[in-house]
Amino acid sequence: MSLLVYVKRNIRALLINHFLIVLGFVLSLSGTLLFVYNQLSAFWWMTITGVGLYMGYVPFNCMLFERMIASFRYVSNACFIIYVADSFGLPGE
Q1: Where are the domains of the chain?
Q2: Burial track 22-31 (b if 16+ CB lie within 10 A, e otherwise)
Q3: Distance from C-alpha of 21 to C-alpha of 23, rounded to nearest angstrom
Q4: What is the pLDDT of residue 35?
């Protein structure tokens, strides 16, 4: 995630951010399917899904909104959007 600072074009960074989120989803899904079909131990399932969820949550919560605001050139603040996104996710816990 820290290497995204070196991507200067906001649209390109936004697309990379979306790619990382989708990659995290695919990693979590494939790890879960392998675990369900007894191809993966519980340790590796927890590790793979943890990495996949991290790849989905951190880019979404940290960088996505900042780059979206910069790409579309809205005068705004990312803190409110992050708060709204978290308020939808937290009741699901």
Answers
A1: 8-92
A2: eebeebbeeb
A3: 5
A4: 97
